Each structure stands twice: as C-alpha cells, then as structure tokens.
Amino acid sequence: MGEHYPGLFQPLKLGTMTVKNRLLMSAMSINFGVDDKGRVNRQLTAYFVARARGGAGAMLVGGGAVHPTGLELPHLPTLWDDGCIGPLEKMVRAVKPFGCSFGVQLMHGGRQSYHDRKVAPSAIAAPAVVKGVPRELSPDEIMEMVAAFGDAARRCRQAGFDFIEIHAAHGYLINQFLSPNANHRRDRYGGCFENRIRFLIQIIEDIRSKCGRDFPVGIRINGEDYISNGWSMHEALRLSRILERLKVAYLHVSAGVYGSTQLTIPSMYVEQGCFVHLAARVKQEVALPVIAVGRIKTPEMAEEIIKEGKADMVAMGRSFLADPRWPLKARSGRRKAIRHCVGCCLGCIHAVLALEPGGCVVNPEVGREYLSDSENKNSVRQTGRSAAGRRVLVVGAGPSGLAAARAAAKAGHVVTVLEKEATAGGALALAAKAPGRGELNDILDFFLNEIDELGVEIRFGCRLDSQVLDRLRPQVVVLATGALPEVPMIKGLAGSQMELFTVNEVMAGKADVPGEKTVVLGGGQAGLMGADYLATRGKSVAVLHRGDHFAEEMSSNDRYYLRERLKQGDVSLFKKVRALTFASRGVSFRCDGKMFELEDCDSAVIAGNMKSVRQAANLLKGRKVELQIVGDAKSPRHLMYAIEEGERVVDELSSST
Q1: CATH assignment of 487-608, among 3.40.30.10, 3.40.225.10, 3.50.50.60, 1.10.10.10
Q2: Is 172 known to be catalytic?
Q3: Which one of 5, 47, 114, 172 is the catalytic residue?
Q4: Average pLDDT, the chain
Q5: Mean pLDDT of 334-363
Q6: Residues contacting residue 554 through CB under 8 Å, at least 6 positions apart
C-alpha cells in the first residue's frame, strides 16, 4: 500500500535535529508515572514507548518542573537535582529504538501551581482554577529561576534527550513575566516589552551556556492570551523575530491561560484547528520552523496545514492519548481505524485538575501500558483463545456493548450483538444529536468499523428472548442495555395538563414537544444538553435542578462552553430547587430562599436520575450461561466508565475460562 498524506510524513530539520515526520506529541501534564520524588518510572516509560512505536515523529515529556516552587501538579517529573538523570536516561533508552525524537518540556507553574509555595513576577492570584496569592520573586530569586531552567536542560541533555522545549505559554511563570495582566513589576523585569521578555531571553542564554549551542531548544509561546490586558499577537510577532535572531530550533504557537475566554484545552464545542491561525500568522513573520496546535485530530486537517504552509509541523496531545498508533494508521491509509479524541476533556483534563491520574474516555489503556504490552497482549489472546473461543452474546450496541464486542472478538471469541433499535449507539448516539456534540459519533464509527473488520454480526431490531437464546446457545451474555430516565415523584406531576417526555425521547426525535415553554426536570449533563437542543428549536426553557451544581459529570472545560451556549438561548437555570409542585400548566418551587412560579408551560422533559435497564437478565435464570453486566446497565455513570467496563469484559472471560 502506498504512503498517504505525503506532506505530513516528510522529515523536518529543527535546529541541528532532523525529525522523521511532521507529527509532534505535545507535552501534557498527565499526572502519573513518577515516584514520590518525581523520578520517572516504568509506567511513564511504557506510555511513551507505546506512542513512539505508534509512529510519532517527536514527543515531549510534559510538566518537567525545574524548581520545587514550580511543580504544577503533584505527580509530574522533577528536574531540579541530578537524581532525575538516571531514570530519565533509562526512559530515553527505551524510546530510542523507534526513531522518535524525544524531548522534555521545561516549565515552572508560577501562580498556576497547585501548592502553597507559589511564586510569580507579581503578587497577583491566577484569574481562575488555582487559588492563592503567589509571593513576588526578588531579582536574586529570578536569577535562581533562570539557572534552574539551565540546569534542568543540562540534566535532560545528559540523560540523552534530543531536544528541550521551554514552556513560555498558557499562563505559567514565563508567560506571567510576558503578560501585563500578571506582571506589574517596576524593575528591569516589568513594564515595557523589552523588560517583560528579559526573563525568557536570560533562560535561553543560560541553557546554551550549559548545553552548548548545538542542543535544539524550542519555545512554546502564546499567540494570544485571550484575557484582558494579556499577551497579544502583536507582542508575539515582536518576540518571534527576536527568537529567530537567537536561532531557537522552533516556535510552537498556542493560546490561553487559566481564566481566558478561549480555553487552552478547548472541548468539542470549539472548531477543530482553533489555534492554527495563530501559528500561520507567526509563520508569515519568520523563517523558523513553526508548530501549530489546537484540536488537530484528522490526517486531512494535519496534511492541509503542512501543504498550505500554515505551519511546518503539527502538535497533537489528546489525539495521541486516544490512539497511540495514529501516525501509523494515517500513513498506511487506515483512516477509519483511528480512534479519535472527541474533545470531552474528562480523562485528560478533568481528572488531572482534580489531582488524579490522567486518562482517556475513548482509550482505557492510557496509563496502563506498563501492565502489559497491548500489542503482545492482543496477539496472545488471539492465539490463546482462537481454538477454544466461547460463544458470546452482547445485548445492546451502545458504547459499552460495542467495546465489549470488539474486545471479545479480538480475543478470539465468537461474538454476536443484539440491538433492539434500528441503529447502534444507545444514549451516546442521542447525546451526539445535541448541538455542538456531533463528534461523539467518532467513538461509534471507530467501534463499528472495528467490529465489522472482526466479522462481528450486529442484529438490529432484535430483542433478547428465549427463542434467541435457544438458537444462539451463548456461553456468555454481556448485558449492555443501558439506562433510562426515571420519572420522579413530584406533587401534581401526574395530574398536570403539560405533556410529559423523557430527554431520550426528545433527543431521539420521538417526541414532538408542543408549544413555546418547556420545563426540564434535571440539570445534569443530559438536562443541559436537552435544554440546548430545545432552545435551538425556539423553545423557552427553564431547567430545574435539585443539586448544588449543574452537569457535575462533565469536565469543567466542556461544561464551560455548554453554559456559554445556554446564555445565547432563552434558557433559565435554577439550582438547589426545593418544594417543587406542579399545577395544571405550571410549576412552583423554592430556590435560594425565594418562591418562583412558572405559568403557561406546555411540556415537561424528564432528565434527572437514570435507572439501569437489565430486566433481560431474568431470561437467563435456569440456564448455564455466564452473565456480565457493563456500562449504564450496571450503574448509570459517564462514558469513561462505560467504555472501560466494556473493554475489560475480556479479562473477566479469560479469568473464568
């Protein structure tokens, strides 16, 4: 098979280093893979080996903290003493055989660090996410930080890394010096542009004095901070010209800080390639290699960026989490086999900001690569189970059912899927119909393509009954029948003249919601998405939520954009709702100590608690059939657990054989 996307898979010279293709796995603070001293371990090593094996041209270790005051998150690599060199060297040796250029991103979190020893150019708290006022650095301490960057770079070179990237973006310490929003100093490090860039320039000079001028040093900068009085494109262009004269290896152009109007890590509501225009503008100004980033997820978009000269290289973070083999699949033309990031921000961002290990909704193997080599594991399963494959019946073609079917088929079992509806997807397919959330279909497309290639039959419009069981004689039944909204017990609801629907019926197009005014009962993710769906159809919507917070199951990044969308429609949100009572065409309730009455309402949509659907399990009584229950059928939760449970079914099958 010929090579696809030729622009993307050509080499590129970055300083003294030649990278084999134009795909950079950008640095991510993944918050796992280090010991209690911040030394990298086999978990992080296996994580990078999987992506080097998958064809990345270059990769960056994320969150390399150069100083104890700059450790952004508690479980990131530390680079502030020579004890880090040995473990890093071992990781480099493991990656080298795959021809991937391997680097480290050096950073200091500044006021955006999750601890109480924060320092910054000025004693100004971060505008969002991280709480606490940092201590202002003295001039002597600034020079200490400069030296810390240089020493960290020297350790990285000694460990065998090919290059380093200085993180001067995203609201971290260097960006704080650059930005008038964070830098109110009156000395030689504050005020005019030349003073505000001084810290970065001194860091570059210190690194070169300790690593030599031949060691490639890239710089990540913001094209825009997207915050009041922040760093701007005008200043980014001025700095880019200076960095070109300093002969840095490349410029990696990103955007945003904590609290910016455009989030640094945007969700699916934001267009793909959202920051590429910033890199393209910088590339017009300099001859240096420029790297673009920002929800680049398809080979077609990546190829277009290179071919149209918008950038010389593309950086992808979450796409490499979702599918470590993205480059190999793209290069061989197996586009449909790519497991795409969907921009939900749950495993990669939400978990990390909660100080938990990072992960990925669509790829449960993230962080588990060290437990067993996934390729070898699959081949062992294939050979070990093919002769004695069991007959597995999966009931339900939602995400957990499809994940289970794929995993079982890859392990050599004989799999059949039953789906009572005419199409696959379950609740996930309904969620994909909400405005701005169509990318959720990428998950379904991946699983459907996979199980089609594996020869798994899906019988649509088919329910589980005794006749099916008699005919198929399954040895294992995987129940993935999902969950449905539970109708709440609310005074007056049964006698109301308002038409009553579930959010599932609405999103499936099975309900013609009448009139102009609608009440949505429940302000979780389903309730808010349903409200958005109805608002785009001209409805006036009131969301009544008993909880203290809306859509807590969503990532904060994803929820931010949904809430902004709701502000554009005729949607009223009420939380901490109490004393809820329905009348014939209205509803009264207490909220924040006040009584509210909504009149002339035409319909109510149930979008609160979900109840598992697993009555089909009763059909198995008296039969010698192993039962596995996964996803929402086991317990209603968010998508991350549904897919993970589906994929783990094969482990249960193996242990019970």
Answers
A1: 3.50.50.60
A2: yes
A3: 172
A4: 94
A5: 95
A6: 344, 346, 350, 525, 562, 638
